[in-house]
Amino acid sequence: MDTHEEKPGHVKMEEGVSYVGGVSKDPVRDSRMMELRQSFHPLYIPSLYISEEKGGHGKGPHEVTFNLMNEDHTICNPLREVLNRHPGVLHVGYTIPHPSERKVAFMLRVKEGFACQEVMRDGFRVLMDIFGTVGKKFSDGVVNYKMEHGMTLDDEDLTTFGESVQG
Amino acid sequence: MAAQTTYPPVQSGLSCILTRHQPALFTSNNAQELPSLMGFFTLTESSGVNVREISEDGMVLQFDLTGVEPCIANSIRRSLLCDVPSMAAETVLMYQNTSVFTDDHIGSRLGLIPFRADPRKFKFRLPRATVEHPESTLIFDLSIPATKTSSALRNARKDAKPPNVNVYSSHLKLIPHPAMKPDDEKRNVRPISENILIATLLPQQELLLKLHVVKGVGKDHAKFSPVSTAMFRPKPELRLLRNVYDEEARRLQSLTPKDLIALERDTAGQEKAVIRDSRLYTGSRGVLKDPTLSDCMQIAFRENEFEFTVESVGALQSAVLVCQAIEILKKRCEFLSLICPKEPNWNNIKAEETTDYKF
């Protein structure tokens, strides 16, 4: 997490391990990140960094534009919907500057006492929860349907959602 | 003269009511409640999934998703189309091609052939790989050598010559890697359909090539999309606002989609129109244009309730694909939340150390 350069207003986070002095600062998080990284297509690995504000970084910590790379409406629209319901959020919106570039500019403005990064992480957490609930209910529904209609249950239906074979 | 169309009043549970000119859209009232942090974290308590139908071979799936915002449903659809991986031919090594088709024409046809392979057992091929690893690539061979014809036959009449050779996808043969075990499942990978016509050759033309089948995502190329279609629509809700009898009922039946309106005999001996099932509505608005029948039916869509139809190409069953799509979305969110920087670079804000939430 301390691998960014010390340029003013520009924090670029490489999605990789954060090594300080040869030892990883947070091995659990890094190993989980490496594991997740395997499941993405190598040309389309998502990443995130905070963009350099043009008018100087006087906008401060409460109004931040995140640049998400290799992302599109699939993640950003639900994230925006979810963050609108966050009590600490004043304004959230996103735009895709050019459709040929896989980049999203995600603007977030929060009230006093909240931090933008924390609010983003809350948003991602809630999105994970939503998808997890929907997935679990879906797989339960499939199992119920198959049992009602006498179809054979495959192994995949019986594994709990989230523990299935990694794609 | 056309009747005045009044804006229909807000009804709970409906997001949109179709009228003669413009649909009446109702925004949800949820945004007006003051959100609290606890309420923020429990957004899906009222959601539900109801599986409507799974076909015999599991390839066609219809299910209802209720209690979620339309953007979540759209994300699932987009993820099914773009992010769920599947296997298709990516590289073609052409050794000999004397047919009338160009190399790239045959190559693009080969790429669109779907393969019956479970993409979860393979890894993505790294972009700068120099050696083909059996974990990531499968090599297929297509060799149609030239049929040898004597010069006498070549100059003969048309019906005496040997016929044209059709190259089908059944001619693709897997070349197993030397390290592959004899009982490995990967030896059974073949195209889903045997009857895909790739090219037609004259007897003296030849086609020799090798194919690399790799794992990819639909975002990269549409050939990697594992569904032939994935669509959703808001659940329609049709209601008859007044009783329609006999002649009018038959006219109503002719104006609405097939099988939507059924005629029942009621106690007075008249034939009454009854809506059989709202989901048979296919989107036609002919009823609303009719002068007398336009006020008898209300066509509306329920709020936050969607019907999905997912048809898989054939590699995996549709239920598995939907589970994978949702899981990939979840993994993306988790990955992004892990790489979101914890401590900002500004001096006047101290971000607290977050405790590990249990998911």
Q: Could you give a quick summary of the protein structure above?
A:
Chain A has 167 residues and is an alpha+beta fold.
Description:
The complex is a heterodimer of chains A (167) and B (359). Chain A has 167 residues and is α+β, with helices and mostly antiparallel strands. Chain A has 4 helices and 6 strands; from the N terminus they run ββαββαββαα. Chain A has a 4-stranded antiparallel beta sheet with strand order 3-4-6-5, with helices on one face. In chain A, β5 (89-95) and β6 form a beta hairpin. Chain A is globular, with a radius of gyration of 19 Å. Chain B is of the alpha+beta class and 359 residues long. Chain B folds into 2 domains: 14-148 and 162-228, DNA-directed RNA polymerase, insert domain (RNA Polymerase Alpha Subunit, Chain A, domain 2, Beta Complex); 242-295. In chain B, 19% of the residues lie in helices and 30% in strands. Chain B has helices at residues 37-41, 70-82, 103-111, 151-154, 246-255, 286-289, 318-339, and strands at 14-18, 24-25, 48-54, 60-66, 86-97, 115-116, 137-144, 165-168, 173-175, 190-191, 197-201, 207-216, 227-240, 261-265, 271-275, 297-312. In chain B, the strands form 5 sheets. In chain B, strands 1, 2, 3, 4, 13 and 16 form a 6-stranded antiparallel beta sheet that branches. Chain B is flat and about 85 Å long. Mean pLDDT of chain B is 82; it is low at 346-359. Chains A and B meet through α1, β3, α2 and α3 of A and α1, β3, α2 and α7 of B.
Helix content of chain B: 10-25%
Helices of chain B, by number, come to 7
Low-confidence sequence ranges of chain B: 346-359
Mean pLDDT of chain B: 82
Shape of chain B: flat
Radius of gyration of chain A: 19 Å
Q: Most extensive chain contact?
A: A-B, 81 and 77 residues
- CATH fold title of the largest domain in chain B: RNA Polymerase Alpha Subunit, Chain A, domain 2
Biggest sheet overview of chain B: 6 strands, antiparallel
Order of helices and strands of chain B: EEHEEHEHEEHEEEEEEHEEHEH
Q: Any idea what the CATH architecture of chain A is?
A: 2-Layer Sandwich
Tell me the total number of β-strands of chain B. 16
Shape annotation of chain A: globular
Instruction: Record the strand order, biggest sheet of chain A.
Output: 3-4-6-5
CATH superfamily of chain A: RNA polymerase, RBP11-like subunit
The CATH topology label of chain A is: Gyrase A, domain 2
Query: Span between N and C termini of chain A?
Result: 28 Å
* Highest-level CATH class of the largest domain in chain B: Mainly Beta
Instruction: Please identify the oligomeric state.
Output: heterodimer
Family (chain B): Belongs to the archaeal Rpo3/eukaryotic RPB3 RNA polymerase subunit family.
Pfam families (chain B): RNA_pol_A_bac, RNA_pol_L
Domain DNA-directed RNA polymerase RpoA/D/Rpb3-type (chain B): 60-339
GO molecular function, one term (chain B): DNA-directed RNA polymerase activity
